[in-house]
TrEMBL record:
InterPro entries: FLVCR1-2_SLC49-like, MFS_trans_sf. Keywords: Membrane, Transmembrane, Transmembrane helix. GO terms for cellular component: membrane. It is a multi-pass membrane protein. It comes from the Eukaryota. It comes from Favella ehrenbergii. The chain crosses the membrane at residues 7-28, 40-61, 68-89, 95-119, 131-153, 159-180. It is found in: Membrane. This is MFS transporter.
Length: 226
């Protein structure tokens, strides 16, 4: 894994997707002192549904435009801005305002899944997509477990501390996303095409040699002395 661009993409995915899972895990510590269980369930439902819809829309966008890096940066910038204001709006304990936060949190977080996955498949050349996706998801799940424990501890002290922690992590993800170079992606695509052409030429040459040997054997057998 010496591919710097892939490592940056991996860090972005781990932080953002881990952030998404962590939000779901800390709903009670985050909103327990402000809302009832039923109200927290409504917030969680809004969070999940908008995430599913935005993930589908992102898939359609990427399929038509192939602008993976643009999508990644847009997602990370949006989620960073949202969490930057969260320490000021969530402690107010207003249900309608928190529902709006849940709406945009799902809307901005989940699209990182198709964006980073498809970008990584382009970056890693001949590595099987299943291996790459497994590496990314296992990293994100492990990070989410650790982050959930950390944020829960911080929120037990003060909810704002946990939100500030998540905001700082989104800042790191944003820096990594901005450090990914668009040119590198184009070069990787070009190199992959060249490798594919070379492999095709190699296979074609081998097929020509096999046919030539077959023709030679047939000719020798026809004109061999009886």
């Amino acid at each position: 894994m010496r591919n710097k661009e892939f490592i940056l993409n991996l860090v972005v995915f781990i932080f953002v997707w881990g952030n998404y899972i962590t939000i779901g895990n800390v709903l009670t510590p985050l909103f327990g002192e402000y809302f009832s269980t039923a109200q927290i369930s409504v917030i969680g439902m809004i969070f999940v549904i908008t995430g599913a819809v935005s993930c589908f829309l992102m898939g359609v966008f990427l399929d038509r435009t192939k602008k993976f890096l643009t999508a990644i940066r847009a997602v990370v910038i949006s989620i960073f801005c949202l969490f930057a204001v969260s320490p000021f709006i969530l402690p107010l304990g207003l249900l309608w305002l928190t529902c709006i936060f849940g709406f945009f949190a799902g809307l901005f977080n989940v699209p990182i899944l198709p964006a980073c996955y498809q970008y990584a498949a382009t970056q890693t050349g001949k590595l099987p997509p299943a291996v790459v996706n497994g590496l990314m998801m296992s990293g994100a799940q492990s990070w989410a477990f650790t982050l959930s424990l950390l944020v829960t501890l911080l929120m037990n002290i003060n909810v704002v501390y946990g939100l500030i922690c998540m905001t700082l992590l989104m800042m790191i993800a944003l820096i990594c996303a901005m450090c990914i170079k668009e040119k590198s992606l184009l070069n990787l695509v070009s190199n992959k095409s060249v490798l594919t052409n070379e492999d095709s030429d190699s296979v074609a040459s081998e097929e020509v040699e096999v046919v030539a040997e077959s023709v030679e054997r047939t000719t020798n057998s026809l004109f061999a002395p009886v």
